[in-house]
Amino acid sequence: MSTYIALFRAINVLGKNILPMKDLKSILEKLGVEEIKTYIQSGNVVFNYNENDITGLSQKITAEIKRNHGFEPRIIILKKKDIQKVVKNNPFPQVGENHKSLHVFFLERKADEANFDKMNELKAETEQFKLVDKFFYFYAPDGFGKSKLADRAEKLLGVPATARNWRTVNKLLEMINEIDKN
After folding, report:
1. pLDDT, position 144
2. How far apart are CA 73 and CA 150, in angstroms?
3. Segment-wise mean pLDDT, segments of 10 residues, the chain, 182 residues
4. Of 25, 26, 43, 48, which is the most buried if we count CB atoms within 10 A?
């Protein structure tokens, strides 16, 4: 049994792609997922799963959501060690208690053709970023929602991604540790 994290992109946002967490949990249970824990309504799930075919699981989840709710969310599934690595390798320790100033974009695959020149043009003077493997750290102390780079980051990275703030990333790690205790 291995522990995984599923990050659902663009569900329950602005009244679109509505998927109650109890429905998501039910779908996952039907697919053999165990010890399911969700965090906030935006699609963060920590769980245990007996098989190694995570791509197949992602496709099954997407198909079930399509069948039951009429849309196909993009899902990025991470291993426990991925979240541990993201937290350990944080290049912006100055985030401190200001959890909203740091976001991590979780990429579907490596961003081999990211447009860093355009990113540097768009970023505000106070903003910083760093791409580490399949994780794009974005430090925006003046606000993520105000950032021109935040708005265009996924396109400039050139791969599908979903972002989570630092508080959520740390909460997911905490949830993993809780499951591992059981």
Report:
1. 93
2. 21
3. 91 80 94 93 90 91 94 93 95 84 96 96 96 96 94 96 95 90 65
4. 43
Q: Which residues pair with 78 in a beta bridge?
A: 5
Residues 6+ apart with CB under 8 A from 15: none
Question: Strand locations in 102-171, DSSP E?
Answer: 102-107, 128-132, 135-139, 161-165
In what helix (H) or strand (E) does residue 24 lie, and over which residues does it extend?
helix 21-30
Taking the C-alpha atoms of residue 78 and residue 6, their distance in angstroms, rounded to an integer, is 6
C-alpha distances in Å from residue 148, one per residue of 91, 137, 142, 156? 21, 15, 12, 12
Strands ordered across the beta sheet of 161-165: 128-132, 135-139, 102-107, 161-165
* Separation of alpha carbons 151 and 47, rounded Å: 30
Predicted structure pTM score: 0.92
Residue type at position 109: R
The residue to which tokens 């899902």 are assigned: 75
Task: Please give the pLDDT value at position 25.
Answer: 94
Domains and CATH numbers, the chain: 2-80 (3.30.70.1280), 84-170 (3.30.70)
